[in-house]
Amino acid sequence: MSRIDYSSLTKEQLVDILKRRDVQARYGLSWERLNVDADRALNRDFVGLELDESLSCGPSPWENLIIEGDNFDALRHLATTHAGQFHAIYIDVPYNTGNKDFVYNDNFFDARNRYRHSTWLEFIYQRLVLARSLLRDSGSIVVSIDDNEVFNLGLLMNQVFGEKCFVANCIWQKRYSRENRSAIGDAHEYLLVYSLDPDGFKNRRGRLALGDKQKSVYKDTGHVRGKWRAVSLSAQGFRPNQMYEIVSPQTGKVFVPPEGGCWKVIRSRFDELTEKGLIYFGKDGNAMPSRMQFLEDIDGMTPWTWWPHEEVGHTDEARKEIQDIFGTQTAFDTPKPTRLMERVLQICAPEKDALVLDFFAGSGTTAHALLRMNKGDGGHRRFVMVSSREATDENPDKNLCRDVCAVRIRKAIEGYRSEKTGPVAALGGSFAYVKTVTVPMHRLEEGLSDSMVWTFALQACGHPLSPVQAGLSSSVKGNHLAAYCANTKPATLTALRTLLEGHQGPTVVLSWAPQVVQAFLSGLSSVVSYVGVPQDLQRAFRQGNAQVHEPTLVEDEARAVPETVEVTDDTAVDEVDELGVADDDGEPA
Ligand SMILES: C[S@@+](CC[C@H](N)C(=O)[O-])C[C@H]1O[C@@H](n2cnc3c(N)ncnc32)[C@H](O)[C@@H]1O
After folding, report:
1. What confidence score (pLDDT) does residue 110 get?
2. Which of 86, 202, 364, 401 has the fewest CB atoms within 10 Å distance of its CB?
3. What's the pLDDT tens digit per position in 370-408?
């Protein structure tokens, strides 16, 4: 919203503003929005989800979701039903390589197009604005990208989320062998990480499990608490209350901090550590003091931006995974390794009940990694995968979502036979397979199917999906009851009354004739919210999408104002604590 009420200004004043604006340079990214071919996927219709039971996996109710359709539609549906709910969003956007990786208006985008970058930016921008409304405050969005658009994407994300929301730019080493064709061989890609609340994100982000290499630093010397290592007590810098003398109890040798440094902890903390027998002066008692850190105390490493292929896989590994699952690498061209997705989820979705979205799901690697993580730690994280059919004018029957994404995830859930390693154990889980259906707002009466209404109701109430029934459909989650009357026949209404009489707790009843239903249920003591179809769905959809507005000039300017950071003594005290405990624990050599 603009702060100026332009309607109250005179023509002269408006002309003056425009003249000044014409000569003012504006910081930030701009692209030729008006010149790019309009994205035919953009529309203002209502978006419903039609369940396809035959493509769903496992028995209902289904906690996970695969959405087939353009992600612009899927995101607008989710903006109504899932605003502010996702812990993590990962997207692997088309990189705009010019090499058939970007389908735009049902054709592969022509790399020679004069508005190549602008078209890509407009396409991504429209979707990022929607995605922003789906994130929890301390949630995060991670976007994979390579050199083709990394600089544009960074500026775009600053614009959509704000510079202050930047968390990290991680480097993924995608190759393990040298690439000799370029002057300087390309070996990495980027993962840009943003959060609406970076401090909140820092408090909840996951730490990384120690690998064999990191564990090998901890030695077993027969200590009752097991393996440990010595961590230096010295830090760089000068802090008056960290500049004391330390005397070795074995030899009486006196130690002072090294030149240009201080001890990591203040005296009282040092005495505490000594009391607990955690200060070490070397085998002979003559070495600089260090702190004993036990392997059993380490709950993981602080993530950093360097993601080498040994830890998270490489493109070749990803292709072999596709080969292993489908028997051919041609099933999907640009997969990410599952280990890379596991790393993203370890950091961004550590909670066992995290909700994760990938709206450029491709072959479904993100869901595969999530299922593996759940299997590993007994979690019940849930996913929403969105994939297009990737149909083009040349290949109109292609259905990537159904034939690759869903097939892979089903195989991961049910187990499959690998060409190389034999049977692969089932990871468990289930999903509902739904297709986006757009219905013009003025045609909802005839365009909304019962299945779409019921799916919308369940999603909006936070219930897992189940198939719609003829007559009365119902679902209970906790003490919340959601019900849908597809008609007002006596049998349907009587079944509803019986259901409500046996239920205690908040209840939502959807119907095409809410007054009729309400009158039938009069005298019932339950607390019932009546939702009218289609008018209340239409209103909810409009409201959900109304929050999704383009960042205005004023907002952009507000974001550009740097914050003054006041340094107080508290900062120093925090750091002492951190250096004494958290930092060391998180950074094994
Ligand atoms: C780089 S791939 C993602 C690969 C994925 N990370 C994996 O490991 O399999 C990008 C995917 O986004 C899909 N896509 C492109 N535009 C889309 C759109 N508008 N809606 C939904 N999916 C889209 C493409 O079909 C492609 O499969």
Report:
1. 83
2. 202
3. 999 999 999 999 999 999 999 988 899 999 999 999 999
* Main-chain phi, psi angles of 320, to 5 degrees: -65, -30
pLDDT value at residue 551: 43
Is the pLDDT score of 570 beyond 80? no
Which residue has the CA at smallest separation from atom 2 of ligand 1? 362
Report residue 546's pLDDT band, with 50, 70 and 90 as the boundaries. confident
What's the number of CA atoms in the CB half-sphere (13 Å) around residue 78?
A: 32
Block residue for tokens 């491709």:
362
Q: 356: helix, coil or strand?
A: strand
For the chain, the distance separating the N- and C-terminal CA atoms, rounded to the nearest angstrom, is: 50
Residue 190 near residue 337, CB atoms below 8 Å = no
In whole angstroms, give the CA distance from residue 98 to residue 102: 8
Q: Whose CA is nearest to atom 25 of ligand 1?
A: 390
Ligand 1 atom at minimal distance to the Cα of residue 362:
27
Candidate of 388, 401, 402 to mutate for ligand 1, largest count of ligand atoms within 8 Å of Cβ: 388
Instruction: Check if 514 has its Cβ closer than 6 Å to any atom of ligand 1.
Output: no
pLDDT digits 0-9 by tens, 291-332: 999 999 998 999 999 999 999 999 999 999 999 999 999 999
In angstroms, what is the span from residue 127 Cα to ligand 1's centroid?
13
Find, among 387, 365, 386, 382, the residue nearest to 313 by Cα: 365
H helices present in 89-166, as ranges = 116-132, 150-161
Rounded Cα gap, residues 345 and 474, in angstroms? 33
Residue nearest ligand 1's atom 27 by CA? 362
Report the alpha-carbon distance of residue 181 to residue 61 in Å, rounded: 52
Q: Tens of pLDDT along 121-157?
A: 999 999 999 999 999 999 999 999 999 999 999 999 9
CA of 260 relative to ligand 1 center, distance in Å: 52
ipTM score of complex: 0.99
Local structure of 526: helix, strand or coil: coil
Strands (E), 330-391: 355-358, 382-387
Residue whose Cα lies nearest atom 3 of ligand 1: it is 362
- Asked if residue 360 has its Cβ within 6 Å of ligand 1, the reply is yes
Asked whether the predicted pLDDT for residue 249 surpasses 50, the reply is yes
pLDDT mean over 232-251: 95
Contact present, 257 and 243 (Cβ < 8 Å): yes
Bridge partners (DSSP) listed for residue 46? 439
Mind listing the domains of the chain with CATH numbers?
A: 31-208+304-436 (3.40.50.150), 212-297+573-586 (no CATH), 449-533 (3.30.750)
Alpha carbons 503 and 46: distance in angstroms, whole number: 32
Q: Whose CA is nearest to atom 14 of ligand 1?
A: 360
441-480 pLDDT per residue, tens: 999 999 999 999 999 999 999 999 999 999 999 999 999 9
Spatial CA neighbour of 497 closest among 468, 475, 528, 476: 528
Paired sense of beta strands 86-92 and 290-294, if any: unpaired
Q: Is the CB of 436 under 6 A from ligand 1?
A: no
Residue of the nearest CA to atom 12 in ligand 1? Answer: 360
Give dist(CA 71, CA 92) in Å, integer: 13
